[in-house]
């Protein structure tokens, strides 16, 4: 059992989870949709929470976001970080409100804020876990975003596996050259502190290696005529010709709009305001 937990919580597992997230290899409902429809769906859920302070409405929107992450098959690493972040934020905001003499209205206001941030975070996870670099770049181009912005997003996603591999190599190299603490301390805090220091030190070589990779990539793109191709309207039309809004896209967007309308209807029946 200890060996299994060690394998799950390893650097290699984290690296594989990040790669699966960046390249949308888990599948799911939104991965089968047109990327433009996914972006529209995300914008809808990211904007709607900021138009209300009704706790009932926000709770319903949070429930919609929760269902969406399961339909999108969000990985355990991203989901765990979200739960940890939300839990920590709720705890320290509640403590701060109590220390500064807050009352029940303060707690309701903090609950509304946390629900809004939670809805946006859930929608972000469900949408961007389902879009690989190529799909996201095509969606931005379809919405008339600048070519260099679309390329930058796609390039950033594609650099992620390289950065993770570089970090893993440098970090393991530091571990091999560094003696472990003589005493682990309570709950192994000295080991955790040493790993944190090594993680910070690992970023400096990564910056140098990344700069070299970026220069090589830019030279290769310019050799292949990337700048000219980006400004060519005919080439852009050929690239976007594969995008099609299908029945699944229409159904998902319609169901989402109806669910949001139902959330506001529920808020009018059971109003809980800040």
How would you describe this structure to a colleague?
By secondary structure, the protein is mainly α. The protein has two domains: 1-131 and 245-274, no CATH class; 134-243, no CATH class. 77% of the residues lie in helices and 0% in strands. Helix 4 (55-71) packs parallel to helix 6 (104-129), helix 4 (55-71) runs antiparallel to helix 12 (247-269) and helix 7 packs antiparallel against helix 8. The longest helix has 35 residues, at 189-223. The termini are far apart. Mean pLDDT is 79; it is low at 1-7.
Using the alpha-carbon principal axes, give the shape.
flat
The largest pleated sheet is described as: none
Number of helices: 12
Question: What's the average pLDDT?
Answer: 79
Listing every helix as H and every strand as E from the N terminus to the C terminus, the arrangement reads HHHHHHHHHHHH
The chain-level structural class is mainly alpha
Low-confidence stretches: 1-7
- Please tell me how large the radius of gyration is: 23 Å
How big a fraction of the residues is strand? Answer: under 5%
Extended strand count: 0
Q: Ends: how far apart?
A: 47 Å
Name the helicity range: over 70%
Estimate nothing, just give the exact number of structural domains: 2
